[in-house]
Amino acid sequence: MDQYHEPTEELEAADRDMVRALMSLKEEVEAVNWYQQRASATDDEELEEVLAHNRDEEIEHACMAIEWLRRNTPTWDEELRTYLFTEAPITQIEELEEEGEESSDGEAGGSDLGIGDLS
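^ that's the sequence the OP posted. Answer follows.
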């Protein structure tokens, strides 16, 4: 199997499950791409709707795989909590978080990444 770079017998069961989840995520995202292109290219409105529906189903599946990764891998959990559902510029979130960690008085930065209450 080409998704493995190490002999499978040397991998723990949890590592093999991680490969399964990552490969599934990869396949779902690839399917989203295919359906998006097909929906964009067709001149048939009904077919476009079908393809867009299929694309959205694949997005749902990808999100489910991401959630499994989040629940089973601390680093995925940490990074998703850092980047998702924020308002700060994506490329500045890490920098803002680091500034917040360096702030000893809690005023500059802080746990809100400098973007205020999002609730």
